[in-house]
Amino acid sequence: MIRISFTEFENNLEKYIGLANTEKVIISQEKGMSFTITPIKNEDQANYSDKFVHDILQVNEEAELGYVTRIEDPNDIWKSIL
Asked: What is the pLDDT at residue 15?
């Protein structure tokens, strides 16, 4: 198990997504919020609808192409989005 800060995750996204295939990665954010990265493997896809899997895979492709919005201030996400 690896526990990292959100900033560390954001700065090394590809590294931790790769590690999530073999280890549990927990991302800790300020104010006590934590998240885990859960990869979808082929054998797991039976547990999800086809649309859900398609949407997740499409988002991954778009992120790899750079279609992302960086949140500069997690306390004011709308500033980065709008």
From this structure: 93
